Amino acid sequence: MVRNQQPAWRKSSYSSEGNNCVELATVPPDEALLLRESDEPGTVLRTNPARLRALLGLVRQDNPH
Prior knowledge:
By secondary structure, the protein is α+β, with helices and mostly antiparallel strands. 22% of the residues lie in helices and 34% in strands.
């Protein structure tokens, strides 16, 4: 990402309308992932695809559908 360029945030397809949703953005050149809660846009978590997959796998184990 070029310095001072804002990331392009995308809402989760599982989110409802309004300000109660998870948003995701990718950041080149290392393709890091940024996550934030739409009602707290100043708090941003930075991770990578492998770590996010591992986290989601653990969540799914505890909450199978």
